[in-house]
Design a protein that fits this description.
Length: 126
């Protein structure tokens, strides 16, 4: 499915975002952390699972954003493991992974696809 064929769900206003930080929203039974990085090269908005697989807490949206080895990451607040914003992979532990949703800004609204990338990866592996 291409980016144009995806089913997009309006989630919030672009004015609800906080630059260089995370905010959390509810989408179809899941908490999603939205990270808005307007100074980043390329993609500036990321939607990633708010649920930390190591602690079991919904805290990823409170994590600090930075760069490790050229990758944009968020550091989980409790155990400080780093997750890549583009694909949800954990730098310290490949067994940990967060779902990542396609996201865009359209007409001053944040739109998220109802199909996270991680679910598609799991389905392909089965």
């Amino acid at each position: 499915m291409t980016r144009l064929e995806m089913e997009w769900q309006p989630l919030c206003s672009v004015h609800d975002l906080v630059a260089q930080s995370g905010v959390v929203a509810w989408l179809d039974g899941a908490q999603i952390a939205l990270f808005y990085l307007p100074d980043a090269d390329g993609q500036t908005l990321f939607a990633i699972d708010n649920h930390d697989p190591k602690s079991g807490a919904n805290v990823i949206g409170r994590g600090l954003v930075g760069q490790v080895g050229g990758d944009l990451v968020v550091a989980a607040p409790l155990y400080k493991q780093h997750f890549r914003l583009r694909d949800g992979s954990c730098l310290e532990d490949p067994e940990q992974r967060l779902r990542v949703w396609p996201v865009r800004i359209h007409d001053e609204q944040v739109h998220v696809s109802l199909s996270p990338f991680f679910a598609a990866v799991e389905a392909a592996a089965e």
